[in-house]
Amino acid sequence: MRMMEEETTPLVIGGFTIDKSLLECKSIQRCTIRSCQAGCCMDGVWVDMYQATEILDHAALIAPFMPPERRDPDTWFAEAHDDDPAFPSGAYIGTTNVTDPSHPAGRTCVFLRPSNRYCAIQSACEANGRASWSLKPYYCCLYPLVDEQRDGAPLLILDEENSLYQHGAGCYEVSALAQPIFQIYAEETAFALGVGGYRELCERGGVQPRL
Ligand code: SF4
Ligand code: SF4
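A: This is the predicted complex of the input protein with iron/sulfur cluster.
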């Protein structure tokens, strides 16, 4: 891939500095729920308080997609904080974890459906004609990419240092085809940069956009 290896100035698109981990070519492809068993959902996720409120505002839409014993919205979130400016509202809260003996980890995010390992929030949106990711927590949509603040500016990076990534929930399988990371995770890249930003990255890398 001709690209940015020769370049020394940081590549900035859509307000994000693009980390070199996104530009590397790897012989991997996205995994499937059948193989990963939604391993990345075993710990739950931190959610901006604004987005948690939005999810709770749609509790009646989401709850039917959860097992009956999990449908009380008062049990969906815990551990509120207000000390991380990386969250747009400045405040954030975690989704709760529940025991799930059917999952390889033995526990999962409260929103993970034991029946098919899909996210109840996403399932509810799709069943009700909404965009798949319209209520899904930001960091769930972005994974296995993540944004970090570096030197006061957002950096878009592959989340390789996450313990989930390192312990079998990295969202990849071995593939015969080597592709740039931003192309393997085109949807997540476009989620952060916008489709225009993703296409700009493809143009810079000399690859055909698939979105
Ligand atoms: S993001 Fe990747 S690892 Fe997580 S559930 Fe989806 S396919 Fe599996
Ligand atoms: S909110 Fe959905 S996608 Fe995010 S960790 Fe929970 S089940 Fe997984």
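The two ends are 19 Å apart (CA to CA). Residues 33 and 117 are 7 Å apart (CA to CA).
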